[in-house]
Amino acid sequence: MSDALVQWRQVAPQSAHNLVFPRQDGQPWRLTVDLERWHKIQELAQIAHPSGRPYYLHEARHTAATLLLMAGIDPSIRKAIMGHTDIKTTATYEHATVEMARQALEQVVPLIRPAAQIEG
Question: What's the rounded Cα separation, in Å, for the pair 70 and 75?
Fold first, then answer.
C-alpha cells in the first residue's frame, strides 16, 4: 500500500494544499464529488453500516484511531497520524474493544491470585 502511495505522489497533480488526491488543477474536490466517491468505494467493497446506509467518513476516523490504539502505536504517533494537536482529541476517537478489555484483565489476574492457585 505504501508503495502505491509513493508512486501516486510522483504522478499526482501538484497541490498548494498538499492534498493526496487533488483535482488536476491541484485544488480540493467539491464535497459532493468526494462524498459520492466515498460511497462508491464502500459499494464496490460491499461494506455498509448495519442500518444499510453508507458509513460516514467521520466514522472511518473513529475506526482508524481505534485500530492505531489496538496496534499499540505510541500516543504521539497516533495523534500525528490523526492530525490532532492534542492527544485528548485523539482519545475521543479511540474506542476500547472487548478483546482489548479481555487482554487487559488477563494481565491483572496474576496480580490478584496467589501464585499457588495459578499453578494448581
Answer: 11
Helix, strand or coil, per DSSP, at residue 5: helix
The tens digit of pLDDT for each residue in 45-74 reads 999 999 999 999 999 999 999 999 999 999
What is the residue extent of each domain of the chain? Answer: 56-119
> Cβ of 39: how many Cβ atoms within 10 Å?
15
Under DSSP, the state recorded for 96 is -
Q: Please give the grid coordinates belonging to residue 76.
A: 504521539
Sign of the four-CA dihedral 65, 67, 69, 71: negative
In terms of Cβ atoms closer than 10 Å to its own Cβ (0-12, 13-18, 19+), residue 108 is exposed
Inter-residue contact 39 to 54 (CB < 8 Å): yes
Regarding pTM above 0.70, the answer is: no
64: nearest Cα among 79, 51, 82, 80 = 82
